[in-house]
Amino acid sequence: NVIPKYWDGAPDKTTIILLTDSEELNEILAQKLEKFWTLNSYELVERSELGRYIGKPEYLFLTPISYTFTRTSPYMEYTVLSFNLTDGLNISRSGEIDFNKVNSLGSGKFDLLETDNPELMLEAELQKCIQFLMGHAEIALSGTTPKKMDIKDYLKMITEERHDEARKRTLLVTQDQLHEKAGSLSDIKEIYQHSIEIVDQEDIYEHVIEQSEGYAYVLFYRFANLTYKILVEAETGRLLYGKVATGFIQQQLGPKDFKNMN
């Protein structure tokens, strides 16, 4: 949900960013934060240091949480890493991080898939997460949104404002993102009348890292048991289009999706 009142004063606060257990991930995270974090000042802290900041209103918290996700069509099991931005944080009696009675400002997440180049994946995905959150913050702080918007209304607003921009970008998709009903690239181009290329996932990562102008890629975003199919600008990380997945094709693109995006 986009609830602007939760963002009141956010630019004047300091965001406490919890480090992970991975030194490699922390190093890349620090680099991406320095380049792309624009909301406010921030501090990178270890788990043992959190007690100094909890319960103080001058802080926001960005917390990494990992969990396992399984999908059935096609079958795949993998770990999801989510960075949750909240206006508070709690530690339970058992020592676990607890989000009870705190407000969520937004989250950026990605799938830790097996890849021949895990460093490239981490660099691109962390960049996407931070750009996603900063774009979300820009809209929430703009003063032009209602007092509360659910994700469907949020994506509807984005689509109405930016769909024309999406059509001007070359859409990058991977073969794995295409359902068999989508057919070949020639079949897709009969439905989708704009520039589109089928590429490897590593190509998309490189376009994201290099902030290539004129390209967009597809993101499948899961929230509250629904999947949303989103187009994201490679150069800036801005959302350009989004629609809830309906029917049997959830985690891939079928003919209906290309018709909707046309």
Please describe the structure with a list of short key phrases separated by commas or semicolons.
alpha/beta, single chain, 262 residues, 5-stranded mixed β-sheet, 12 strands
What amount of the residues lies in strands?
A: 25-35%
Low-pLDDT stretches are none
Termini gap: 27 Å
Portion in helices: 25-40%
Number of strands: 12
Largest sheet: 5 strands, mixed
Computed structural class? alpha/beta
Mean pLDDT: 90
Order of helices and strands: EHEEEEEEHHEHEHEEEH
Tell me the overall shape: globular
Instruction: Please tell me how large the radius of gyration is.
Output: 19 Å
Strand order in the sheet with the most strands = 2-1-3-4-7
Number of helices: 6
Quick overview:
The chain has helices at about 25-35, 120-140, 150-165, 185-190, 200-210, 255-260; strands at about 15-20, 40-45, 60-70, 75-85, 90, 95-100, 105-110, 170-175, 195-200, 215-225, 225-235, 240-245. It is α/β, with parallel strands linked by helices and about 260 residues long.
